[in-house]
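ugh ok fine here u go
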Amino acid sequence: MTRLALIGYGKMGKIIETLATAKGHHITAVVDPYAEGCFQKITQEALSGADVCIDFTHPQVVVSNIEQMAALGKNMVIGTTGWYNQIDKVKQVVNANQVGLIWSGNFSIGVNALFKIVAYAARVFNNLPDYDVLGHEVHHKNKADSPSGTATMLGRILLDNIQRKQKLVYKMLDRKIEPDELHFSSSRGGAIPGTHLIMFDSAVDTIEIKHTARGREGFAAGALMATEFIQHKIGFYNINDLMDDLLPQADE
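structure:
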């Protein structure tokens, strides 16, 4: 059993609470200034009984949340997206306070299997210059950031493994794309939990790798696995470290 504090009590927070309870974990506190019956702020009192804190909040507050949780000596699972331009700052906070943090743009184990598949495919197509590569992601109308954290991670995987691509473009293109650019577009609407598509396209055929989430339960299950991973660790980790821990013999 792990004692968990939930930072944020939106849809993901509620799903994590339900799944965590079903798996025998104990929710010690919920912190959300907009939810009735919850702690309004991150304080020593609110987090006193927690082994690990799980944050699914908002890009504008997550770094401040991390600073406060780290100052209280709490290990963290960060599922909030849209803060990655501050990764260096967060690493410094984690190291200075000697706590553990694991983050991901997407904690779904299926999506993280997708990352490994895409990395392998990208190395294959790196040697097949007749194929171009592009990506597209679709999410619900209430998602706070664009591109998604998952799209950002997929784009980086592709750039790291395809030498002829040097730049990621996430915004709308109103011009011809340059040969060294990789376009990863986004759409928002409806109630779609998340769809990510990678295409390798040539004049003669197209190969597609696609992940479609059916709901948020997969994200919650992965986040709970991450709590078990980070509970007794110190340092800055991401989902790849968890996947390597689960699949130590997997071919990189």
